[in-house]
Design brief:
Blueprint: H1 2-38, E1 88-90, E2 99-103, H2 105-116, E3 122-125, E4 130-132, E5 136-139, E6 146-150, E7 153-155, E8 171-176, E9 179-184, E10 188-190, H3 194-197, E11 204-205, E12 211-212, E13 220-225, E14 228-233, E15 236-238, E16 245-248, E17 251-256, E18 259-261, E19 272-275, E20 278-283, E21 286-288, E22 294-296, E23 300-306, E24 309-310, E25 316-321, E26 327-341, E27 347-351, E28 356-372, E29 376-379, E30 396-409, E31 416-419, E32 426-438, E33 448-450, E34 452-456, H4 475-478
Subcellular location: Secreted, Cell wall
InterPro entries: Glyco_hydro_28 (IPR000743), PbH1 (IPR006626), Pectin_lyas_fold (IPR012334), Pectin_lyase_fold/virulence (IPR011050)
Family: Belongs to the glycosyl hydrolase 28 family.
């Protein structure tokens, strides 16, 4: 009997031990699942029981309220915690008022200097505020990963009368000598351009397209100068006094998901202008303005433009090039999957008489035209007045392809216009699946070609009977114009 009682006691002890072991294992699984929901960067392999992670302290923030998303960054949720709140420099903490009238320039400069000195620093202009700052140069070099994040509204003084006399009238925000910087946010850059457009010296365009008066100084809204590895994304940029965004002397630029807008008749308000800049991607953006949607100046190469919607505007332009007998070099430009609507031009190459250099390796493909004048234009007689003279030298235009260009055109001008230099012909122009129909009415003039050589791989609509076959006899001579 005593032996039986002993066995019962032992059995009860074993059962209790097994139950306690089961409860411990259950608690471990609970902690593991909870932690996984808060840490997406955790390895999918379950940790060993000895390495059960400690519960997170809810009082310690793991990331900023509006963490910057860098499109080119393959690790936007950095497990190392480089986007901690210690790296965010809120301009309101440096004295910015954000009431739309107080000058907040000094606060932005102070926040910039602090962010510039640390890796992955963030200058934050928070939402719910309207910050006014004067013409400012934000210069480097800075530590890598710097972010300028505008979630509120940022704007310059309201018009030329409010512009400080000591400030440059040619530019407002300048980013200079930077590497690995991002300009982003969900806010708005408001240019306050209307009073600049109304200056009597500005070239005003009437409804009939006629222009009057010459140019005068007005600030470009945003300028990147001598910088590399830049990302510009998500912002709304509007009503610039002159160019909305300008890149000069840069390399490695990613622009995506921007909204750029100004009125149709606002003078000289190019959306994005690049010059002396290489390796550029412009993607998935909406641009409507009073001048070129995107303009590409001399010294540009390896530019990829895709998924852009333009209009109203002056279209996507290469040039103008070769002004004042200068040398211009542009190569390897691709425009694809774009929409151009209600614009004075579609895709354009424009050069001045007397220039040298070359435009080569240009591809326009999969472009939808909607009520566009001059859908496809090469103009080697570009001139801002009637005083320009014909000259013997010219920028050499070669290796230009137009593929799958379809839609409608404004019948006031022919949809295709290839006016090449008398002495330096355009060569190796290729057309395939070009079908352009009148938006309304009938075509007044046939497509125009002058000294243009190339090939139609399919029948062009309307017929392009003026394109010359083969190569010009002077092909060897024009090769010397290359860059």
């Amino acid at each position: 009997m005593e032996l039986f009682r002993g066995l019962v006691v032992i059995s009860l002890l074993v059962i209790i031990l097994l139950q306690n072991s089961s409860n411990v294992q259950g608690r471990y699984h609970y902690h593991k699942t909870k932690n996984k929901s808060h840490n997406k960067a955790e390895s999918p392999v379950s940790p060993a029981p000895d390495n059960v992670p400690e519960p997170q302290d809810p009082s310690v923030p793991s990331s900023p309220v509006n963490p910057p998303q860098i499109p080119s960054d393959p690790y936007p949720n950095d497990p190392a915690g480089n986007s901690s709140s210690d790296c965010i420099f809120d301009v309101t903490s440096y004295g910015a008022v954000g009431d739309g009238s107080t000058d907040d320039t000094s606060a932005f400069v102070a926040a910039w200097k602090a962010a510039c000195a640390v890796e992955s620093g963030v200058v934050l202009a928070p939402e719910g505020y309207v910050f006014m700052i004067t013409s400012t140069i934000f210069s480097g070099p800075c530590k890598p990963g710097l972010v300028f994040q505008v979630d509120g509204c940022l704007m310059p003084p309201d018009g030329p009368d409010s512009w400080p006399e000591k400030d440059s009238r040619k530019q407002w925000l300048v980013f200079y000598r930077l590497n690995d910087m991002t300009f982003t946010g969900k806010g708005t850059i408001e240019g306050n351009g209307e009073k600049w457009w109304d200056l009597p010296c500005k070239p005003h365009r009437g409804p009939d397209g006629e222009a009057s008066k010459g140019p005068c100084d007005s600030p470009a809204l945003i300028r990147f100068f001598m910088s590399s590895n830049l990302v510009i994304s998500n912002l709304r940029i509007q009503n610039s006094p002159q160019f909305h965004m300008k890149f000069d002397g840069c390399e490695g630029v990613l622009i995506q998901q921007l909204s750029i807008s100004s009125p149709k008749l606002s003078p000289n308000t190019d959306g994005i202008h690049i010059e002396n800049t290489k390796t550029v991607g412009i993607y998935n953006s909406l641009i409507s303005n009073g001048d070129d949607c995107i303009s590409i100046g001399t010294g540009c190469s390896d530019v990829d433009i895709e998924g852009v919607t333009c209009g109203p505007s002056h279209g996507i332009s290469i040039g103008s090039l070769g002004v004042h007998n200068s040398q211009a070099c542009v190569s390897n430009i691709k425009v694809s999957n774009a929409i151009i609507r209600d614009s004075d031009n579609g895709v354009r190459i424009k050069t001045w008489q007397g220039g040298t250099g070359s435009v080569s390796g240009i591809s326009f493909q999969n472009i939808q035209m909607e009520n566009v004048r001059n859908c496809m234009i090469i103009d080697q007689y570009y001139c801002m007045s009637k005083e320009c003279l014909n000259q013997t030298s010219a920028v050499y235009v070669t290796d230009i392809s137009y593929r799958n260009i379809k839609g409608t055109y404004d019948v006031r001008t022919p949809p295709i216009h290839f006016a090449c230099s008398d002495t330096v012909p355009c060569t190796n122009i290729t057309l395939s699946e070009v079908e352009l129909l009148p938006e309304e009415g009938e075509l007044i003039d046939d497509p125009f070609c002058w000294n243009a050589y190339g090939t139609e791989e399919t029948v062009t609509i309307p017929p392009l009977n003026c394109l010359r076959d083969g190569e010009p006899e002077s092909e060897g001579e024009v090769a010397s114009y290359g860059c």
